[in-house]
Write a structure and sequence with these properties.
Length: about 90
């Protein structure tokens, strides 16, 4: 396979794995509830995504960088929503 074909798979994977978090973010913002989202899982995932960003930067991989920066932002919004909505319930 040529490098162009390999890049396609990188971007395709990036789109799918990043878009997978949109339904959770939309649901969280619509319902103003996030108690079903694990705080520990979110924090661990965000640290993992940060590691992917560093890795993608070091190997100059645009698909890895773009996907993980967007995924980081989406999950950060989910984390902020979880914290904000849990404080407003009490």
């Amino acid at each position: 396979m040529t490098s162009v074909n390999i890049e396609f798979f990188g971007y395709f994977a990036a789109i799918l794995t990043t878009a997978a978090f949109l339904p959770q973010l939309i649901k969280t913002l619509k319902t103003k509830k996030a108690e079903d989202v694990s705080l520990i899982t979110l924090i661990m995932f965000i640290f993992g995504v940060c590691s992917w960003i560093i890795y993608g930067y070091k190997i100059s991989s645009s698909p890895i960088l773009i996907a993980n920066i967007i995924t980081f932002i989406l999950n950060l919004f989910i984390l902020i929503s979880k914290i904000y909505y849990s404080k407003n319930i009490r």
